């Protein structure tokens, strides 16, 4: 479905605005599909992301601030996510041996088993979602998106202030 049809636009905005809208709509479409997969396993997409980070981390675990830094969905409250995953027995907090003020988050055997069970379905979902593109197209699109993301990060650094609202 075209952008104009999906958003019922009477006229198309500038190409840059079109691209931003396409990216936002695509993100939402991917998230909706992923949410169905993770919900079937008793997780939210944000909880899966935390499990993914912790599982790939050092054996001694990550402190909360490191999990926050590595998150894809940065709007989520990591402390609360860890609390919920701890209640489910998927993660646990351990005291840092060098700094008692810091606790580290490690994955439990139950959490590791769940992540192992999800590996196949996550890969299959990824393959289905991207089956409309060749491998080369996927890599090329990924490079372009990385370039756009890097530009956005530079822009944020160069111009951190939000412009004044326009009076109507």
UniProtKB/TrEMBL annotation:
Residues 16-150 form the HTH marR-type domain. Keywords: DNA-binding, Transcription, Transcription regulation. PROSITE patterns: HTH_MARR_1 (PS01117), HTH_MARR_2 (PS50995). This is MarR family transcriptional regulator. The keyword Transcription regulation applies. It comes from the Bacteria. It comes from Geothrix rubra. PANTHER family: HTH-TYPE TRANSCRIPTIONAL REPRESSOR YETL, TRANSCRIPTIONAL REGULATOR, MARR FAMILY. The keyword Chloroplast does not apply.
């Amino acid at each position: 479905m075209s952008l104009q049809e999906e958003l019922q636009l009477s006229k198309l905005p500038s190409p840059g605005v079109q691209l931003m809208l396409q990216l936002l709509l695509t993100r939402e479409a991917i998230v909706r599909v992923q949410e169905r997969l993770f919900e079937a396993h008793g997780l939210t997409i944000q909880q899966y992301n935390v499990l993914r980070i912790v599982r790939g981390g050092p054996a001694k675990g990550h402190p909360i601030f490191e999990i926050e830094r590595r998150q894809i969905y940065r709007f989520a409250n990591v402390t609360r996510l860890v609390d919920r995953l701890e209640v489910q027995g998927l993660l646990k907090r351990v005291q840092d041996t060098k700094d008692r003020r810091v606790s580290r988050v490690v994955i439990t055997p139950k959490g590791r088993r769940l992540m192992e069970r999800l590996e196949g379905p996550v890969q299959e979902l990824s393959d289905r979602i991207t089956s409309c593109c060749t491998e080369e197209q996927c890599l090329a699109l990924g490079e372009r998106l990385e370039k756009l993301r890097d530009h956005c990060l530079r822009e944020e650094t160069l111009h951190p202030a939000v412009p004044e609202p326009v009076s109507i």
